[in-house]
Design goal:
The chain has 561 residues and is α/β, with parallel strands linked by helices. 36% of the residues lie in helices and 20% in strands. It contains 21 helices and 20 strands. The strands form four sheets. The chain has a seven-stranded mixed beta sheet, with helices on both faces. Helix 18 links the parallel strand 16 (464-469) and strand 17. Helix 4 (126-138) packs across helix 6 (158-176) and helix 10 (246-258) packs parallel to helix 12 (276-285). The chain starts with a strand and ends with a helix.
Length: 561
């Protein structure tokens, strides 16, 4: 028996692939470990999309490249996926979806789910019939599936619910008598886990961080976070505003922090490019800001529905002039909550822009995680009540000027985008420029007490390091757990980097950096920070995430070079 199997559904936009995915994941998570992701073309209808559902007898947060069971939705579904098939791959679909030659070449089983749906009263039930068939192959619980179907369709009436359940049952029964057998048995010690996406955990983290205002202009894949928080408007008092553009959005966020709010904007690389002037404004006014940048392949529009880790340099160097910033890139779902809440805390504490750098793959994949622990005390603000002699940019002994807000106290809160003196008034003094600039830059030293160390997994001798950041956590972690020659060093606090990492890097025999970009942006940052050459790199930039079997082979090749 295999420890895991990969099921892929392939068809065009609008055929209901996502419905089958959601049904399967919701139903199967009561019985086994599941990880699911999708790859879609940038169109509402047509094209060719696929949903990948990996089922395992141990917790997983990554995909495999090879396909075990492929379900076709139309006659354009197969060609693109042929490189991922192996000699035992089972293909299921209508006879017309394959040529006669392909039927001989592959392990093909004819199955017409539309005809099954018609038996239940409506051809539109075909994706639920497919859900039933796959569930039947897995011998999964009918009751959980029925609950899932009922919850989804109850608003459409009892007839629709009963019709879909009938379609499910017909598919399930057909699978029970099918010659197709799934080479998989769930773990008897299965522990049910919560199913979430990266977007889910970031929204929870923002609420834990005290967010009460969001301004953004829609841009995928950053838009979902905006939508999730908008749904919490009444429950948590979050004001969500769609700005006229990205330039306005970040300026509105800066203004909201100035007024005492805890504000967030969410965007993607192309949208953030328009925000860079406002980032500098936050830098010189020492105004907090929390900015979520959801990465996708560029340049320009690029591949807007795919994934990449290529905006690190954009975020790291955005804005003119020199000023401190903090960059997080969550890789584990559980830490996504902590990091987002922490972003609000540190933005407030150090009066700097803090970036949450994610990507399409991490944001939209469905994964299981342990119970989320909500961070405490991150919603507390660092605002002072002003006195009549209040100076916004006073040279305080702490190294951070006390931050007041208009209307809280008796003082005036003056800010200026020009260089300024302690009161916030424009100055041309060279001496004041140096003192003020050094005060701002000294925050890099102050931040050291809040730097997060990387996660270290695997071989304790730490001689063969595999370094990743952000969304590569799941795939590298799984590989390292099965290959004791490697140590996994994973970064979620991307900038500034802790001093302790230098010794770790210098004492390693071999270092391999894994990134979803073409130039090794994080490897270059490590090189620049610690002065250590990092020439062993595995880079992927076709718009897909890394797959376990694909990356494992490349790591072993690099290890034995």
């Amino acid at each position: 028996m295999k420890e895991s199997i990969t099921i892929v559904l392939s068809g065009e936009a609008g055929q209901g692939l996502q419905t089958v995915e959601e049904f399967l994941v919701e139903s199967l998570t009561h019985e086994t470990y599941v990880f699911s992701s999708k790859e879609v073309m940038s169109r509402v209808r047509g094209g060719n999309n696929s949903v990948e559902i990996r089922i395992s007898n141990h917790p997983i947060q990554a995909l495999r490249y090879t396909i075990d069971y492929l379900f076709l939705f139309n006659n354009h579904s197969l060609e693109r996926l042929v490189p991922r098939l192996h000699d035992k791959t089972q293909i299921i679909g209508e006879a017309s979806f394959l040529t006669d030659e392909q039927k001989k070449q592959f392990n093909f089983t004819e199955m017409n789910f539309i005809e099954i749906a018609k038996q239940a009263g409506n051809r539109m039930y075909f994706n639920v019939a497919m859900f039933g068939f796959i569930s039947g192959l897995l011998n999964s619980s009918k009751s959980f599936a029925h609950q899932t179907i009922t919850k989804r369709f109850i608003r459409k009436g009892e007839d629709v619910v009963s019709g879909n359940i009938q379609a499910f049952d017909l598919g399930y029964e057909l699978a029970q008598g099918s010659p197709i057998k799934l080479d998989f048995k769930p773990n008897d010690n299965f522990k049910p886990l919560k199913v979430m996406t990266g977007n889910d955990v970031l929204s929870i983290g923002a609420l834990a961080g005290g967010v009460n205002y969001l301004a953004a202009y829609p841009m995928s894949p950053g838009t979902t976070l905006m939508q999730l928080l908008e749904a919490k408007t009444n429950e948590f008092g979050v004001l969500v505003e769609q700005a006229e553009d990205e330039i306005a959005a970040l300026n509105m966020v800066i203004g909201a922090w100035y007024a005492g709010a805890r504000a967030l904007t969410t965007t993607s690389g192309g949208g953030f490019a328009l925000m860079t002037e406002a980032v500098s404004l936050a830098g010189i006014t020492e105004n907090p800001a929390v900015i979520h940048v959801a990465q996708r392949p560029g340049p320009a529009t690029g591949l807007p529905t795919r994934t990449e880790q290529a905006d690190l340099n954009l975020v790291l160097y955005a804005g003119h002039g020199e000023f401190p910033r903090i960059i997080f890139a969550p890789g584990k779902l559980a830490t996504g909550v902590e990091l987002m809440a922490r972003a609000f805390h540190l933005a407030d504490k150090y009066q700097v822009p803090v970036f949450m750098l994610s990507d399409q793959y991490w944001l939209e994949s469905l994964a299981q995680t342990d119970t989320i622990v909500l961070p405490r005390n991150y919603a507390q603000n660092h605002i002072v009540e002003t006195t009549r002699d209040y100076k916004r940019y006073a040279f305080d002994a702490s190294g951070i000027s006390p931050r007041g807000i208009p209307g809280f106290g008796k003082g005036f809160v003056k800010v200026d985008s020009d260089e300024h003196d302690e009161e916030g008034l424009l100055t041309e003094s060279f001496d004041m420029r140096v003192r003020m600039h050094e005060k701002r830059l000294n925050k890099f030293n102050l931040m050291k007490e809040d730097l997060l160390e990387p996660t270290i997994e695997g071989n304790p001798d730490k001689k063969n390091l595999v370094i990743g950041w952000g969304s590569t956590y799941g795939v590298i972690s799984e590989i390292v757990s099965d290959n004791p020659e490697f140590t996994h060093v994973h970064f979620e606090h991307i900038y500034p980097l802790p001093d302790s990492v230098e010794d770790l890097l210098r004492n390693a025999d071999k270092i391999i950096v894994v990134e979803n970009n073409a130039t090794g942006q994080f490897a270059n940052l490590l090189q620049m920070t610690y002065g250590i050459k990092l020439n062993q790199r595995i880079l992927k930039y076709n718009g897909e995430p890394f797959h376990v079997d694909e990356l494992e082979q490349k790591l072993k090749e690099k290890a034995h070079d």
